[in-house]
């Protein structure tokens, strides 16, 4: 996946479902084309199918279980993601934590289907641990920045820099996303300057009155 | 929902996804119309959207989280189910167990959206407990029958009879489904004769070479 | 167990471990004897053994797993509780939630060892559900009162009254404890007047400078 | 902790509780003294207190939660382990899996109390991930060997060798234990020859008619 990546997590926000999911993805597709920056969308499970069928921007699941197809009620397999046209999945988001064994299983299951794994982590040590599982991306979400409205540029950015360094020491091929504290194009620029390959963000796009305007700002300093 | 109900759980079976989900639901719709028996389908999350848009038989989710819309990555809300046209959801399936507090939260969230809750349980006591939460259905899956290929008629049927009695003592309005040991129309008839309002089944339909033939047999003794 | 019961949960408070656990239990034993009121103590797992060996007041575990003895690393069985001299266990505390199937398993495992089950719940519906499992006690912890410092007498006490009524409709033998909002003897009196058989409380005793004085106040209006 | 380490997990076996825990630990202490080999014991939570007080061999918990002391009912803190005299804890045993964030939290909590962390893992990738968290030990339990009665010498030993190599590439200071497939002194010798610093085992000692004889055999080839 070309860098940098702007990955928008629609969570279960009312403002990110159904028609709104289509509107945000429409804006993302337009701005990605205009700017040449890769913008991915991670909608609810239910919107995966329609978004994959109507858009060309990369669509991610918000979670995947590392199971083979079979007797797994209420779970979501990598196999079903590939079938529907998704390009990958978040794994171990702070709102959907997994055991270490299950994270590894999910990364392996995604890779067996040629899908991209984005493993979310909460600090430097867990970022290094995630890198040892060889996912394409590790997304660091420092708890003190999640949903705080505090920009990563104003918080201590050292946690990002050190995480990049630890991740690359363990696995030079794993890319890092800044996973919290992103509101503006200035934040994205800082994230890239700190050595990360993009950002994972949610509310600042999804809950915006004009998500397209926010997306246009996010790519403006790249 | 009119009784009896034949509810087919497609789980994460390869034979129950994508095109196969459409084929099984097409057969279900035809046989429901022919026979007058209600046949519901519970596909993977990803197939919820296309099945709800292409079919009129009742479509259920396999699991739902009792959350309001919001910052819940990798979860599925009752609100999103209603938006997509599902009629209800399984809750607490043996392959997706929940805490008691979360079962209650899911049942409340479904009912707030006018959706049908089918709470799965493993024995008589937990069936009675589930009934106290006032869901529309309790589906009893005796562990010794799950995926066993053993017909409920050959196993001791007393657990079903006693569960019906305990459920109705706690909540006379809650209907009961026989949730394991169903292969044939004879099994469905026995389930109904034992006092249940239908069946919840999976592999005998989903993994059949001709799911339509199995469905036609299932409704044949009603 | 004679009513009313004052059950003190020492949680993992620093002020409730080791020597402090001994001091609190010493005070409880003295005041129980003076007042004739039953006072139980639920210490950390580690303090179960010494407290059971040094005191005669009823000692409860804070959690139990419904397993038979066997290959269960990091779990705690009813069998081991009986062996050490505990009289019962909390089950499904709000800080240690269990699946419905596991709550039922834990209640059955405790009763097979002649131990007392105290199942914690969060509202009226889950209290009724817990009662269907036939534990000796259901302890209602309304989330809005937990650790709030708000007395149950000042909050709306109707949730307690309605829970008692629902619990007894399902199972007349199950006793109810008021599980949050208890600071003083006045609160205990209100709890009993609302129809409950006692109280489950924690910080107001454990974190008190003089736990004995608090305990003496708690039993003073009975 | 001096190498090699023989760490005996008593699990929740009936044959490893109460008096039997004392007998096994008595034998361990004697044989450790005779042979100069370090033998550790991981009893149930309830036996931690009496074993720590009666014996000098290192006593480990089977699980620890990475919490500070506080409102954590039914959990076990590193602080309480230190208080009782334990030297460390298993973390993330295959029978008590944790999220990645919680494994990291438990390792940090143990180290803050100067206690030894033994993180259990299921394959090479998760072993490398665990090493990134900098615990003193990683114990590899290949699922195909757990409780199988198959000796690691007869199974493919390459998984152990590759895990040691991956662990040391990530963190040269982390020691590795062979965590499954150990029955005899010959197995222990093979484990050490494969580059590990000892073994983690359970049933072959705990369920033996004469645990002392098994322990004496285990240290016999070192």
Structural account:
The structure is a homotetramer of 222-residue chains. Chain A is an alpha/beta fold. Chain A has a single domain (5-218), classed as Alpha-Beta Barrel (TIM Barrel), CATH 3.20.20.70. Helix content of chain A is 41%, strand content 15%. Chain A contains nine helices and eight strands. In chain A, the strands form two sheets. Chain A has a five-stranded parallel β-sheet with strand order 3-4-5-6-7. A three-stranded parallel β-sheet of chain A has the order 2-1-8. In chain A, strand 5 (116-121), helix 5 and strand 6 (137-140) form a beta-alpha-beta unit. The longest helix of chain A has 18 residues, at 18-35. Chains in contact: A-B, A-D, B-C, C-D. The C-D interface holds C 9, 11-14, 17-18, 42, 44-50, 61-63, 67, 69-77, 79-81, 83-84, 90, 93-96, 147, 202-203 and D 9, 11-14, 17-18, 42, 44-50, 61-63, 67, 69-77, 79-81, 83-84, 90, 93-96, 147, 202-203.
Domains counted in the coordinates of chain A: how many? 1
Strand tally of chain A = 8
Oligomer: homotetramer
Q: In what range is the share of β-strand residues of chain A?
A: 15-25%
Mean pLDDT over the residues of chain A: 95
- So, the CATH homologous superfamily of chain A? Aldolase class I
The run of helices and strands of chain A is EHEHEHEHEHEHEHEHH
Q: What order do the strands of the largest sheet of chain A run in, or round the barrel if closed?
A: 3-4-5-6-7
